[in-house]
Amino acid sequence: MRTPAPTSPRTWFITGASRGLGRAFTLAALERGDRVVAAARRITRKDFDDRYGDRLLTLTLDVTDRAAVFAAVSTAVEHFGRLDIVVNNAGTMSSGMIEEFTEAEARAQLEVNLFGALWVCQAVLPHLRAQASGHIVQISSIGALGGFPTTGMYSASKFALEGMSEALAMEAAAFGVKLTIVQPGGYWTDLYTSMTSTTPLEPYGPLRAELEKQWAEGSIDSEPRLAAEALLKLVDSDNPPLRLLLGSMVYDLAFDISRRRMEVWSGWEQVSRAAERAVPAPGSAD
């Protein structure tokens, strides 16, 4: 893997830039001398050090507002002249059993994590296509590796993001634009403290108690700075991967889930193969 140092400053567009991983990504890009458009629902220049000067542009943005996203991207391009790296980092997390979600709660989860990223991609692609370059980075999650109790709708949003992104990666490649799906493990951000929760249904009480016991045994998350360092290596690569796992825990889990899926597929191979037999289209001539 070759990761040459960039020869000139690049311009980033980062959503969810005011906190957590987004803020770490923003600071890492600025510290290396790049230019950053830092977008978030609540963000101002006062959130950052004055020394970054005109290399930093902060934009207030709700990614669920498609028109606002297109306007923000236009402002970014007008301000800096181009975009090189686009990081779809904005996201929320809703916790609850699938049965407990109201329609509004379910839709809200998808509005940010899926549609927000979709609107950003649609807004930046005309500019990236025109310059025949660029790198879109989709911040996914360990939740996209599999569904887990209480995070089902969050996983659904990230599964959908990844399915859309796989197709987009192939479409964008025809124009010289790269795309990478980043799947982080645990980091000390406010994702969990700011998440919303459904109204609990009594029958799920025992399962919740068991889950809380498991969580109480502890997980040690990492500093966002480490994710930012990995992101810099990613965007500096001549040949970035479609997917990048961040963290030993998520790395091991990805392989474990993949192996278990392959074992199940293999065990049901005869049934799978027997379900397919090519025949002429109905109504066609023999």
Describe this structure in words.
The chain is an alpha/beta fold and 286 residues long. It has one domain (11-249): Rossmann fold (3-Layer(aba) Sandwich), CATH 3.40.50.720. The chain has 8 helices and 9 strands. The strands form 2 sheets. A 7-stranded parallel β-sheet has the order 3-2-1-4-6-7-9, with helices on both faces. Strands 5-8 form a two-stranded parallel ribbon. Strand 6, helix 4 (152-173) and strand 7 form a beta-alpha-beta unit.
| Radius of gyration, taken over Cα atoms and rounded to an integer in Å | 21 Å
**Dominant shape:** globular
Order of helices and strands: EHEEHEEHEHEEHHEHH
Strand order of the largest sheet: 3-2-1-4-6-7-9
CATH A-level architecture:
3-Layer(aba) Sandwich
Throw out a few tags for this protein:
286 residues, Rossmann fold, globular, single chain, two-stranded parallel sheet
What's this, in brief?
The chain has helices spanning 20-31, 66-80, 103-131, 152-173, 205-216, 224-236, 248-267, 269-274; strands spanning 11-15, 35-40, 56-60, 85-88, 94-95, 135-139, 178-184, 196-197, 243-246. It has 286 residues and is of the alpha/beta class. The chain has one domain: Rossmann fold.
